[in-house]
Amino acid sequence: MTILRMDNVAIVVDDLDAAVAFFTELGMELEGKAQIEGLYADHTVGLEGVRSDIAMMRTPDGHSKLELTKYHTPAVSDAEPRNPPPNTLGLHRVMFAVDDIDDTIARLRAHGAELLGEVAQYENIFRLCTLRGPAGIIVALAEQIG
């Protein structure tokens, strides 16, 4: 048996509207929003009394999705440390291919993104960088140049 596809990556955020605005600025499209609650939600995530709002974002090609989730109940558990460094165990980052890395950085800074390090060039192939976005999300960008 093999998987059919990767359906989405879920990211818990504290401000759903800010996260949607950030990923919309990046170029993702809002596919839809929904409130999630009930026994199926409790059983799926392994928590009791789940009530959350989600926003499903998709890439312009339609092949990749992010599920942004704001939990109302139970209360959100804060990660320690609040903004972990990139070498922390667990989900590291989400990387997006972009056509103009400098323009993308400038647009995302208007939504609170902070550049971690600087834009680097890998041989004559890529320009790369890493940003911290809403809720401490680490987003990497890659611009193919060669």
Shape: globular
Number of strands: 8
Strand order of the largest sheet: 1-4-3-2
| Secondary-structure content class | alpha/beta
- Quote the average pLDDT: 90
The tally of helices reads 3
Radius of gyration: 16 Å
Strand fraction equals 35-45%
| Poorly predicted parts | none
H-E string: EHEHEEEHEEE
Distance linking N and C termini? 37 Å
Largest sheet: 4 strands, mixed
User: Which bin fits the share of residues in helices?
Assistant: 10-25%
Structural summary, described in words:
It is a single chain. With 146 residues, the chain is of the alpha/beta class. Helices cover 18% and strands 39% of the residues. It is built from three helices and eight strands; from the N terminus they run βαβαβββαβββ. It has helices at 16-26, 39-45, 101-109, and strands at 9-12, 29-37, 51-58, 65-73, 94-97, 114-122, 126-132, 138-144. The strands form two sheets. A four-stranded mixed sheet has the order 1-4-3-2, sandwiched between helices. Strands 5-8-7-6 form a four-stranded mixed sheet, with helices on one face. It is globular, with a radius of gyration of 16 Å. The termini are far apart.
Can I get a quick summary?
With 146 residues, the chain is α/β, with parallel strands linked by helices. It contains three helices and eight strands. The protein has helices spanning 16-26, 39-45, 101-109, and strands at 9-12, 29-37, 51-58, 65-73, 94-97, 114-122, 126-132, 138-144.
